[in-house]
Amino acid sequence: MSEVATGNGPKTVVALDGTCGSVERQARALAGFLRGGVHGDVCVETWVFCDDVCAGERLALLAPTGDVRLAEMPATRPDVMAAVLAEALPAHGVELLLLAGGATGTEVATRVALRTGGGALTDVLDVEPGSEVAVCRRDVYSGHMRGRFALTARPWCLSIDSSWQDALVAPALEHRVLGVVDAVAGTGPSFLEDVELAAPAPDTGIADSRFLVVAGRGVGSSQRVRRVEAAARRMGAAFGVTRPVAMNAWAPMDRLVGISGARAAPALCLVVGASGAPAFYWGIERSDRIVAVDPDEHAPIAAAADAVVRDDGVAVVEALAEIVTRRRSKGRRTT
Amino acid sequence: MRILVCCKVTPDFEALRESEWAAGAGSESEARVETRFTPRVLNCFDEAALETALRLSDQLAARGEEAALAALSVGGQETEPFLATLRALGFERTVRVSPGADLDFRPAATAALIAAAARYLGGGELILLGDRAGPGDGGTVPFRVAEELGRPCLSRVTDVEAPADGRLRVGWTADDGLRRATISRPCILAVGNAVVAHLRVPTLGDRLVVRHHVTEVLSPADLGVDLETAAAAGTCSLMGLDPVDRSRQAELIVGDTSRDRARAVYDAYVRKALEET
Rounded mean pLDDT of A162-189? Predict the structure, then answer.
């Protein structure tokens, strides 16, 4: 773990939505981005948006930078966050705005850019702020290609790619609250009423798994997907699915692995019946080892795996589960 | 309730070969992936948005209330078969805005056309669209439309219900989990990982009923939109495209039976992974 260093260069604001349960994850991702995703010096401070200033002072401890400002806003109001930033950024001479990836980041980056005449880009992998333009890279074509984009008008409003959530960067060691950003007067009531957290982000074990089995559409049916899941459980592996499987309702959406689902970094990922579309592969690309089981020799996953088995995925996974179970019971008898 | 759904027909990117992606790499004008001959599909998030609208219509109809459904797409002639399907499914009005220019990576221009078309169609109390669409996948269009129309917008919507009180109950994937809220209209909802993601299929009878109906085709000029001015407002341009190398060694595991191959995988990979677990 290393601390984010900041220096001279374009004045930059990292904005955290402190009213959201994901604030720690946002802070970690933005700390990682500042360290590895910003090419060039920036003069940066963190703005923490919070329900009240007392809560903000506690949340300030998470900030990736030493200098922190607080801003008050009601919970679940990215529109208010955008309004505050759109009014305050030009006044503070801010050239670069960074937000964590996700729904709030996309909304706030877009709205602030439109209201200030700046440029917006989402899911940014890295940025090189220059004197004329900021050059950013992000994945396009469902992850098949990486695009280079030039943002001209300032402020450059960026939400960062979700992959930065994996970064292991410490918050700043010392924090100095510079002040409180004035809230915008006249923001109307929310169009949302009776907001409830129906279900916290589910812990499917996928993100933290060391052994992950993923079923794709090639498995063939909901019944066969359930057989793969049962085999995965017998092996003690986490279980995920690709988007087509979830869209077919063969498994719940919270099992989704890929750009619109979970991202894992297991020691071993066993991929069964998945073609290996980039949007899915993004979710498993940090695996130490990837083994693909697919009868189709032309499936793109073959070239992107460490090992390939040309066979029916369900048969292989069930045979594997049997081997694992037998070895375990043999081990127990020996001890 | 007047419901407008915006949908995009895109090339099926999964149908392209590695060589076709590699040929698309380059800088500025050279950066172009050839998709003219690639099969077309409905953007998956837009598909979910369309089905969400139909389900809302079903709920309202069950209570004797009416929903007027309209579908809007910005695109070329390839969009027509999809719009014909939507008419058969109950979308009373289908409108296509033919931009006459390539709008890939120009979300500001796309949003300007959608907003102008929405005004042309009377606004719609509820505008539904997909959370994002290729090739840009940026997810900014719903919020750009919202800013143009001055409406609130909620993204990553998973489901929408119409309770009897006339309001809407919406579920969405927030950054900290699944949230639900009651919303007031007019508003814009961007559908993400929807509970029901597939669009229903019309019967032949449904198609026959609307076989003489046609899509209304509009140009940017009809809507009073100057594309170049609208695109310039985006202040973000594509400089180039690079291929993404994901290759690994791809060792082929051999064996006479599934059990043999499973044993080889166990010995080479699974045993070590389980020891580390």
Answer: 75
Q: Which residues of B touch A150 (CB under 8 A)?
A: 236-237, 239
Terminus-to-terminus CA distance in chain A, angstroms? 39
Beta carbons of A110 and B143 less than 8 Å apart: yes
Q: Which two tokens stand for residue B157?
A: 């919507």
pTM given for the model? 0.88
Between CA A99 and CA A164 the distance in angstroms is: 11
Q: What whole-number distance in Å separates Cα of residue A71 and Cα of residue A46?
A: 11
Q: How distant, in Å, are the alpha carbons of A32, B137, B155 from that of B132?
A: 25, 5, 10
Please measure the distance between the N-terminal and C-terminal CA atoms of chain B and give it in whole angstroms: 54
Classify residue A26 by burial, with Cβ atoms within 10 Å: 0-12, 13-18, 19+: buried
* 3-class secondary-structure state, position B103: coil
Summarised one tens digit per residue, pLDDT across range A87-136 is: 999 999 999 999 999 899 999 999 999 999 999 999 999 999 998 899 99
Beta-carbon contacts of residue B272 (< 8 Å; ≥ 6 apart): A267, A268
Tokens 């995703």 map to which residue? Answer: A37
Distance in Å, alpha carbon of A308 to nearest chain B alpha carbon:
5
B57: pLDDT strictly greater than 50: yes
**CA–CA min distance B134, chain A (Å):** 6
- Cα torsion angle, B232, B233, B234, B235, sign: positive
Residue A321 in tokens: 């589960």
Cα–Cα distance, A179 to A48 (Å, whole number) = 11
Domains of chain B from N-terminus onward: 2-231 (3.40.50.620), 247-277 (no CATH)
ipTM of the complex: 0.92
Indicate if the pLDDT at residue A5 is higher than 50: no
Mean pLDDT of B26-36: 85
Nearest-angstrom CA–CA distance, B75 and B101 = 9
Residue B200 Cα distances to B11, B49, B155, angstroms: 21, 12, 23
Instruction: Supply B256's token pair.
Output: 């006479």
In this predicted model, what pLDDT tens digit does every residue of A199-256 receive, in sequence order? 776 677 888 889 999 999 999 999 999 999 999 999 999 999 999 999 888 998 889 9
Are A20 and B176 inside 8 Å of each other by CB? yes
CB-nearest to B192 from A260, A270, A300 is A260
Residue B75, min C-alpha distance to chain A (Å): 17
Q: What are the tens digits of pLDDT across the range B210-242?
A: 998 999 999 999 999 998 888 777 678 999 999
Report the percentage of chain A scoring pLDDT > 90: 61
Q: How many CB atoms lie within 10 A of CB A2?
A: 9
Q: How far apart are CA A280 and CA A243, in angstroms?
A: 7
Instruction: Tell me which chain A residue has its CA closest to the CA of residue B146.
Output: A111
Contact: B266, A320; criterion CB under 8 Å: yes
SS3 content of chain B, % helix, strand, coil (to 5): 35, 25, 40
Which positions 148-177 of A are in contact with B (Cβ < 8 Å)? 148-153
Split at pLDDT 50, 70, 90, the class of A4 is very low
